[in-house]
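hey all, quick one before standup. I had two proteins in the batch that finished overnight and I want to keep them in one place so we stop losing track of which output belongs to which input. First protein below, input sequence then structure tokens straight from the run.
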Amino acid sequence: MNLKIRAPHTINGTISLPASKSISNRMLLIRQLANGQITLHNISDCDDTFVMQRALKGYQEIKTDLTQKVSTIDIMAAGTAMRFLTAYFASSPCEVVITGTERMRQRPIGVLVDALRSLGADITYDEKEGFPPLRIRGHQLDGGEVSIPGNVSSQFISALLMIAPTMRRGLTLNISGGITSRPYIDITLSLMRQFGITIDEPNDHTFIIHPGQYNSGEYTIENDWSAASYWYEMLALADDGCVELEGLFKDSLQGDACVSRLFKPLGIETTFNEQGVVLKKVSQTKPDLADYESDLSVCPDLAQTMVATCCGMKVPFRFSGLHTLRIKETDRLTALQQELAKLGYEIKEENGDVLENNKNNDQGNPVLRGVSGHSIETYNDHRMAMCMAPLSILHPGLEIQDAEVVTKSYPTFWDDLKSVGFSLS
């Protein structure tokens, strides 16, 4: 499904955002490790969470059907599910093959597999070394001590942390080098502690997880700050407006809550109330920023939003800490350059870690150029669709290809746009 978008110039409304898929998927695994004795409220209804739930249900069926020797579990394009379930199946009594889409089979997982093997896991590659699909013969792991690089994927670290209490000796996890997306690791640690797991942190790069059992209880999942970022972008690009986003917490566990800080220099004010947050555009003029620089290594999922916003506002920028974007749902570094170029925005990449544009100016809207002009390819990446859609405020009739990809994290995105006056055809 392709959508052509026409946007209002003033945006006002109240939006109920989707629940956080990051917290949902962690809590689904923790609930599984607690033998189902945790009641969850406000679980995300996005594709990634559905895949996680389906896989865990499939595992339960494997355990009860003794005639089923090996089961194939397809997690489609859900990277979180691939990492978390690889660790879970490796530490649980089962034999499974876990696979996914063609793109998922191109996303490296060798660092996690090597760590699990060193702890006693039985995992082999069914096709290409270092990549899914994986054949896993699960059993309780001895545990012990393992080191893993921190600059590849925080999900590898979170996967190991969550299963660590089930290991006979627990786990001492050493992180080498800089840690990418540290807030996502902090989410994992916080949830584990809330449900009874003892964790020591002798320094910033070492986690000692003691053997133990997750406690029973209840948990309400916060709405998604990553989804909120697109509303910040819309207001920044619009002439005026005010939007209330329900279900966001002031003391959020989510690293992407930093979006409120990132958009303050771009003229968006954030106020918390009992329902969530209120976003208001406080300036109708271009921010007086000579060069907007920020390290996004703690929140790489905001990179596409920040790049698209600054391009639209003609704010020169330099965003670093983007090395993980190459191995996301698509190569997001290349995808951003290619699609924004169609609208006349020139972006430079540096060392696979930086995106910058220091040539924006005040000479009016950029000239459209490139084949197909207004038609934006999304590369089966939900965030490409959602970060590009607000640019329809500046480029009427902008077309988003394969618009249904938003269901991966924000199924009601297009309906929410219509509710504030966007026209979709």
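OK second protein, same deal, sequence then tokens:
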Amino acid sequence: MVTGRNETLGRRIRLGMVGGGNDAFIGGVHRIAARLDDRFELVAGALSSTPDKARASAEALGIPRSYDDFRQMASREARRKDGIEAVSIVTPNHVHYAAAREFLKRGIHVICDKPLTSTLADAKKLVKAAEDSDALFVLTHNYTGYPMVRQARQMVADGALGRIRVVQVEYPQDWLTEHQEGKQAEWRTDPERSGAGGSTGDIGTHAYNLACYVTGLRATQLAADLDAFVEGRRVDDNGHVLLRFEGGAKGMLWCSQVAPGNENALRLRVYGEKGGFEWAQEDPNYLWHTPLGQPKRLLTRNGAGATEAGTRLSRVPPGHPEGYLEGFANIYSEAADAILAAREGRAPESGTHYPTVQDGLDGVRFVDACVRSSKADARWVRLDG
């Protein structure tokens, strides 16, 4: 991927960041992803809700312009000739809407961490703000940036599995099996900041997005049984969800942050009339494909049988592992392609695509429907239209 794009390196995109101080995990990941292919230059930030901490983080990270809050940053950067062209929003979920709106209304492109917002009402308002803006909106559902995920999506679209019948996806972790102290656990288990969904919002949205992205299917109904197993926890830490997709396919989704022995075990299995395949995030360079009536075959990233959808996102030959950071960086490079195209008044390169604000709305609808269903004793509910 990067090899064919070196001609853009002299035109780095000026980037800002909201949230993501120098001790924040996801902020660090976004910074690595933004610079891995040398497409962005981080020049401004409102890195913390505490001004002193924001300034200290900017100094430690070598970011030249620090702001006390995102409103000040959006206003001042929009007036500068050398102001930011795009902003990464890596705050807790409840800040996403207000922050993104400030930059969108000034024509600054937004790259936002998932889930889109903490409430469905805010998600709908953010969709409207994005539609009313000339700026692009990119949501970092980073697992869609893995080459073998792109290959799986292309195989489904090309009919390799035939009509899809069954979709199974799971994302178990174990880090919240007991009560945890610290910033990451604190805000993720606070419904005022994370939203009504705990594991459903944090990792269930990844699993749901992956299932829909690869299959091209849209869920119409679900039945969810959510639990908060840790005493005193106010959001779910485990969820079992049945899904009904348009066209008749059925799905099962499990997300858990209380499953000992699991770290980031995102897995997808899809079965159709002509065959099936399996993909696991912790072993992401491989896709197992089983045509009906034939032996299971192993497809490798950039190896024999690789498709253009996957190879265009690969950096190194097969056998050299690419993983989480490279997949995340692929979303940033796809965003860079689209931003440069917008800057130059042309269409992006063929094949360029990334998760959008609409994908984010779908994820928040999923969480909202899970919470509604579980409160009604796992009754089937429709996803909000």
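Flagging for whoever picks this up: The chain has two domains: 2-143+331-355, 146-316+362-382. The radius of gyration is 20 Å.
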